[in-house]
Fold this sequence. Notes:
Blueprint (H helix, E strand, L loop, with lengths): L3 E5 H15 L6 E5 L5 H6 L1 E5 L2 E5 L2 H14 L4
Parallel strand pairs: 1-2
Antiparallel strand pairs: 1-3, 3-4
Helix pairs in contact: 1-3
Amino acid sequence: MKPIIEFCLSNLGTYSYKAFEILEKDSNLDLVEYSCTSNCELCAESIFCLVNGEPVTGNDPEDLVKNVYLYLEENPMF
């Protein structure tokens, strides 16, 4: 089972699309786009995605990518 990385379309449109492009090149991840992830306050304030259902943020797209991999390293699925 691959880690699931979920992106809100609103956040993709304003902040996180570059991070999405970087992460989608990793065949060990499943990326999903939703019209809304029900994290509106977080979405309005920061670059973020959900990693296995948990919010992960970054200061910029590259930082978000780094934090996604850090989260996965610190929270193995098995």
